[in-house]
């Protein structure tokens, strides 16, 4: 019951998320449905937000996955951070 209340509390506050947001999710995740990440992406009020769904990826997309997928995730994170720094997104937040 506590978990359900905590989840509802978080859901009610998603629109308050305004910081730059990078959401990464494995499409084959059996622990957390990728639709939860899609919901977070849609509800967050962040001006700069990115959602990446990795086909064939599971829950731990940076661990226990094929090397090429882990490399792709690392590359996406670095590219996103470089973009934020280049456009000074953090300074405008």
From TrEMBL:
InterPro entries: AB_hydrolase_fold (IPR029058), Hydrolase_4 (IPR022742), MAG_DAG_Lipase (IPR051044). It comes from the Eukaryota. Residues 2-66 form the Serine aminopeptidase S33 domain. It holds the Pfam family Hydrolase_4. This is Serine aminopeptidase S33 domain-containing protein. It comes from Trifolium subterraneum.
């Amino acid at each position: 019951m506590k978990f359900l209340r905590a989840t509802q509390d978080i859901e009610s506050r998603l629109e308050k998320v305004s910081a730059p947001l990078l959401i990464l999710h494995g499409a084959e995740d059996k622990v957390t449905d990728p639709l939860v990440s899609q919901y977070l992406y849609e509800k967050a009020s962040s001006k700069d937000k990115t959602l990446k769904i990795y086909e064939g990826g599971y829950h731990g997309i940076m661990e226990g996955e094929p090397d090429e997928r882990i490399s792709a995730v690392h590359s996406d994170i670095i590219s996103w951070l470089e973009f934020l720094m280049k456009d000074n997104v953090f300074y405008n937040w």
